Amino acid sequence: MTSPTRHFHWLPRLLHWSMAVLIVAMLFIGIGMVGSVSSTHEALIRLHKPLGILILLLALLRVCTRLAARPPALPTTLPRWQKHAAHASHWLLYGLMIAMPLIGWAMLSAAGDPIVLGGGLRLPPIAPQSTLLYAYLRQAHTVLAFGLFATILGHVGAALHHGLIRRDGVFSSMARGRRRE
User: Fold this and answer.
1) pTM (2 decimals)?
2) Is the pLDDT of residue 180 over 80?
């Protein structure tokens, strides 16, 4: 009988840390877009759109890898409510990582503003052109961005709690791979 794995496979770890960098960058790019009216604004928008689509694709891949391979078990010393909170917060993060780019894409579609990726590839609109729909989707995108930021802060706080205070292996299961015995 084999013991359960105590570390995530390399692919979920690679996706986790790559997306962490991309999402934090996107949050700052979004803040910069809102606070900028200069030529920087257009450059940030041109960067924001394809990065959002990349995050959407990576988030879908993350969900697939999560469903294909069970993550390491949480410590048995963790109270049941904390285990439930950990699972719920992870699925909330996945939902936000998928919803944010989709809402952004729909918002741009409603504005009649296409998403152009590298090589001139234009993504098709996923919502009808409508000023009112654009306004609702823009508000939703903003609210969810704040929700994503708050969820990330909670996630980082929990990770630091596990890594620095509890020292129960939860943080190291994502921070590094298996040690060679």
Assistant:
1) 0.88
2) no
